[in-house]
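input
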Amino acid sequence: MFTGIVRERAKVASFDRGRLVVESSLDPSVGDSVSVDGVCLTVAQRKNGSLAFDVMPETLRRAKPFRAEVNLETALRAGDPLGGHYVQGHVDGVGQVRAIEPDGDSRRVTIDTPADVLRYCVEKGSITVEGVSLTIAAVTEDAFEVALVRHTLDATTLGSLAPGDEVNLEVDVLAKYVERLTAR
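output
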């Protein structure tokens, strides 16, 4: 379980035959869960300022490819502050950045979203984009918008997004539970 509050922006050192290695100052143990761009991965090896993860084919089918930098968050521990929202690290779909517009010192980002993900999006609800907990500013027929403050732009990889970029999306798990319960 995560909160969507990124702890580190990390450089990808390599990705070969399912083994992802990132340069990191975080200190998880082997076997711990870490969110990598919103994907829950298990630390397989830790040495010399790097973390290694084994990425399954299922993950590669559901998530977009890793870029040169990734957002990292260690798993939530009992007593930690819940600054974002409950995030599982299970990618629900991949969206595509349609537009990025300046909005004062912030940016407003429009993300084209698959219908099976968009149905869980509500204005002022929560969504995770690349592992970052965000509030949905608006929803249209085929997209949602988020407003990114300066801190988020600087502390995460979201500041380097461009139109056309793919992003991992995870909807608020509470929306999925509500849907399942009301369907009965």
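quick obs: The longest helix spans residues 173-183.
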